[in-house]
Design a protein that fits this description.
The chain is an alpha+beta fold. It has one domain: Alpha-Beta Complex (Nucleoside Triphosphate Pyrophosphohydrolase), CATH 3.90.79.10. 22% of the residues lie in helices and 43% in strands. It is built from 3 helices and 7 strands. Strands 1, 2, 3, 4, 5, 6 and 7 form a 7-stranded mixed β-sheet that branches. It is globular. The relative contact order is 0.26.
Length: 153
């Protein structure tokens, strides 16, 4: 599967994992977004249902076992280079409940960390090139708000 300069959009999944009022982030170890903090996730495999992809990707990147609760948002990430599309992903981000496992950065995650709401909404971090982009913050906030309504702690 050609990720860079693809012939067609690629389908990915992401996870907003809420536990004890915190959300899990991973620092990307590969492009695109290498070195940036983001949600755990990755590409679907051929024939893999979305929920199964979320479960697999989270386990591969973080060592955690999760249960997808509901779809938060379907979004596109398109990065252009000159007149060509360098990356084009369609990503289904799910609210997830942690069910087990042991947290450890693995696969293409360079690091993992839990963050509280005050941290992902901090204005002074918006200038940090490695921090969360506005789209990721929006998805995290939507997932966190939904988790609060569902009573997920």
């Amino acid at each position: 599967m050609q990720r860079e300069f693809p012939l067609a959009p690629l389908v990915g999944v992401g996870a907003v994992i809420v536990d004890s009022g915190r959300v899990l982030l991973v620092r990307r170890g590969t492009e695109p977004m290498k070195g940036r903090w983001s949600l755990p996730g990755g590409l679907l495999e051929i024939g893999e249902p979305l929920a199964d992809g979320v479960i697999r990707e989270v386990q591969e990147e973080t060592g955690l076992e999760v249960e997808p609760v509901e779809l938060i948002e379907l979004l596109e990430r398109i990065q252009r280079e000159d007149q060509r599309v360098r990356y084009h992903y369609v990503i289904a981000d799910y609210l997830c409940r942690m069910t087990g496992g042991a947290l450890e950065a693995a696969s293409d995650a360079a690091a993992v960390r839990w963050v509280e709401r005050a941290e992902w909404t901090r204005q002074d971090l918006k200038e940090d090139a490695s921090w969360l982009d506005p789209t990721t913050v929006r998805v995290i906030e939507a997932g966190w708000q939904r988790a609060q309504k569902l009573g997920m702690e």
